[in-house]
Amino acid sequence: MTASASVESQKRKKKGTTSSVGIRHLQEVRNAGKKDHLLSSNTTRKYDSTIVRCRAWLKVLVEGGKESLSDDLDAQPDIDKAEFAKAFDDIPNQYSSEGLGLYIVAKCLTDDNKESTATGAHAAFAKLWDQV
């Protein structure tokens, strides 16, 4: 056996031993792997920034300020304003699809953004909510 074959053999043996690794470590590696390999880093960055913008828009919508529909929400007895404010949380609720639809209408039909704004928002939340 040559020296390089011996080194190669040791690498294979070392690589295959996971018996001393704990569950928590494996979960961390799995989560990091999902983040690194599920989507490209550029796509992940764009989705993350889209979610931040959508959440900021929803906050203004619910709490008041520019483009506020806060008074409209107060006038809707069938809408729980506190739950509507959580529409873009990591775990979706009964108002998530309505909130996303309103965001898309506001940005694409009212603000004249392009179709990619709607597609990006939809894809970002689809990815987020599929992971829960």
Overall domain count: 1
What distance separates the N and C termini?
51 Å
- β-strand percent reads under 5%
Mean pLDDT across residues? 82
Q: Which regions contain 5 or more consecutive residues with pLDDT less than 50?
A: none
Q: List how many beta strands DSSP finds.
A: 0
General shape: globular
Fraction of residues in helix? 55-70%
- Gyration radius over CA: 23 Å
The largest β sheet comes out as:
none
- Summarize the helix and strand pattern as letters: HHHHHHH
Query: What structural category do the secondary elements indicate?
Result: mainly alpha
Explain what you see:
By secondary structure, this protein is mostly helical. The protein has one domain (24-130). The chain has helices spanning 3-15, 23-37, 41-63, 70-74, 81-84, 96-110, 115-130. The N and C termini lie far apart (51 Å). The model has no long low-confidence stretch (mean pLDDT 82).
Features:
single chain, 132 residues, mainly alpha, 7 helices, 69% helix, globular
Short description:
This protein has helices at 3-15, 23-37, 41-63, 70-74, 81-84, 96-110, 115-130. With 132 residues, the chain is mainly α. It has one domain (24-130).
Secondary-structure topology with pairs:
Layout (H helix, E strand, L loop, with lengths): L2 H13 L7 H15 L3 H23 L6 H5 L6 H4 L11 H15 L4 H16 L2
Helix pairs in contact: 3-7, 6-7
